[in-house]
Amino acid sequence: MKGLIVSASGVRGMIGSSLSPIEISRFATAFGTFIGSETVVVGRDTRASGEMVKGSLVSGLVATGCCIIDVGVCPTPTILLMSKKMGAEGTVVITASHNPVDWNGLKLAGKSGRLLSADGQGRFQQIYQSEKVKLVSWDQLGGVETVDGAIDYHIAQILDLDWLNLAQIQQRSLKVVIDACNGAGSIISPMLLRRLGCEVIEVNCTPNGIFPRSSEPTPGALKELCQVVKSEGAHLGLAHDGDADRLVLVSDQGVPLSSEYTYALIADFLVGQRTGDLVATVSTSRMLNDIADNHSVKLHRTPVGVGHVIEKMGEIGAALGGEGTGGVIFPEILHTADGITSIAAILQLLVSSHGSITDLVSLMPRYWMNKRKIGVPSQDVADAILEMALTVFADDDLDITDGVKRVWGDKWVNIRKSGTEPAIRVFSEARSIQEAEELCQSTVDALEFLKKRVTSCD
Questions:
Q1: Using CA atoms, how far apart are residues 70 and 286, in angstroms rounded to an integer?
Q2: Are 80 and 113 in contact (CB under 8 A)?
């Protein structure tokens, strides 16, 4: 269906148009067939459309004989962790993550909460596209069981981590402001912070799915959080996206930090305490290269998407993985980005360093990143633009791991099709703000020209 975006992340679309009950049921019956009518853990974020989507999803899964465990409204990592605990054959998270409130989607995972591998995605897509689903008779239909306690279980797993010193954090009595965007982190994150002995100030922590800011926690979206951090004299500000798999920071001075710093700070803190390399996507900051070098480990780059990072982590036994979006993967908890465990890691780092977030950021390698996106009519148009970009930039040093990445020494620009919305993303990074902005702008100008050429031919 036009406007529906199917990717390694699952499927996303706009409610009332592309993501219809019929399309949701089609995905559900395909997924139920894919996992062989086994147990599926289902949960959702707080979006107002969540119940509608769940109804259509459950209908399709039950029709294929699946037994459903409904864990309710929870962050994506919490839902996947419950699937791991229960050894379920499949998981479906109802979320559109950082997309606007009028979007929703389905994030699919296989056995024990592991996101689908490339092979699994291919097999599922074959069933979905062919519509060769296996519906069961009336006496073999699945059922639904509601299970509580997912949030408590996730917190307990975090508090049991060997690198977390609960007494040390509690003794520091940190004042922390948390902005959950009224999303899935609205309950669990304040609860965890209080268990860690923090004085907690909640901003937008009513889990009603009415987003008071952009669900994507960009610096520009965090003005309220920044103001509260400053006025309250807090040690730290924290922000989630809609499903709380991401965490973004605001410094003690009320300055919003680039989402790139979340993974960089945690990697610099934790990688020295364990064996194994780091994994990051091609569009994650060069800070990770420097951090890997400082700790004498290797950094492995993958295409953008948590699934790609996880797959590479499994291949090499990585210590840590993540993306520049604020998503960090802690393999000792589960194999997905986990904005809740990231809170504990940042607090432990802060307490162990005996400094402030401002101090810690000042010690990081200094790069500047610029991020833009260009709206496109469809994914097909995005594909055509990228194909032309390969020719236009053929004389540059190119990395085509994901899209087209042009690399020069200590600066780069990456052009890639978004997997979550009809857009082309352009990320650049350099040693100065001006250089990063100029590199990004010149690339955007070139792509806009190519976009006109492509659309004029339609």
A1: 40
A2: yes
Per-residue pLDDT band for 52 (boundaries 50, 70, 90) equals very high
- CA atoms of 105 and 92, how far apart (whole Å): 10
For tokens 């004029």, what's the residue?
456
**What local confidence, expressed as pLDDT, does residue 296 receive?**
95
Residue from 97, 112, 186, 189 carrying the catalytic annotation: 97
Region 338-367: what's the mean pLDDT?
96
Q: Are 444 and 370 in contact (CB under 8 A)?
A: no
- pLDDT bin (cut points 50, 70, 90) of residue 421 is confident
Distance CA 42, CA 79 (A): 7
Flag whether pLDDT at 256 surpasses 70: yes
Contacts of 456 (CB under 8 A, 6+ apart): none
Q: Could you tell me which residues come within 8 angstroms of residue 151 by beta carbon, excluding any fewer than 6 positions away? A: 74, 78, 187, 188, 191
CA distance 416 to 427: 9
% of the chain at pLDDT higher than 90:
88
Question: What is the distance between the alpha carbons of residues 222 and 257, in angstroms, rounded to a whole number?
Answer: 10
Residue 87's φ and ψ, nearest 5 degrees, are 65, 35
Mean pLDDT, residues 294-302 taken together: 96
Reading the block at residue 393, the tokens are 């930039």
Q: Can you tell me the distance from the alpha carbon of 210 to that of 274, in angstroms, rounded to the nearest whole number?
A: 40
CA distance 38 to 221: 41
What global pTM score does this model have?
A: 0.93
Numbers of helices and strands, H then E, in the chain: 15, 20
Q: Contact 27/106 with Cβ under 8 angstroms?
A: yes
Phi and psi torsions of 289, nearest 5°: -60, -45
Could you give the CA distance from residue 53 to residue 233 in angstroms, rounded to a whole number? 41
Q: Which residues contact 227 (CB under 8 A, 6 or more apart)?
A: 254
pLDDT of residue 8: 63
Is 97 labeled as catalytic in the residue annotation? Answer: yes
Cβ neighbours around 94 below 10 Å, total: 27
Exposed/middle/buried for residue 230 (C-beta within 10 Å: 0-12, 13-18, 19+):
middle
According to DSSP H, which parts of 131-259 are helical?
A: 150-159, 166-172, 188-195, 223-232
CA nearest 382: which of 363, 403, 398?
A: 403
DSSP code, position 139: G
pLDDT single digits (tens) 142-170 = 999 999 999 999 999 999 999 999 999 99
CA distances from 92 to 232, 357, 414 (A): 39, 36, 31
The percent of residues in the chain predicted with pLDDT above 70, rounded, is 99
CA-based nearest residue to 82, from 320, 340, 309, 280: 340
Residues paired with residue 176 on neighbouring β-strands, in sequence order: 200, 236
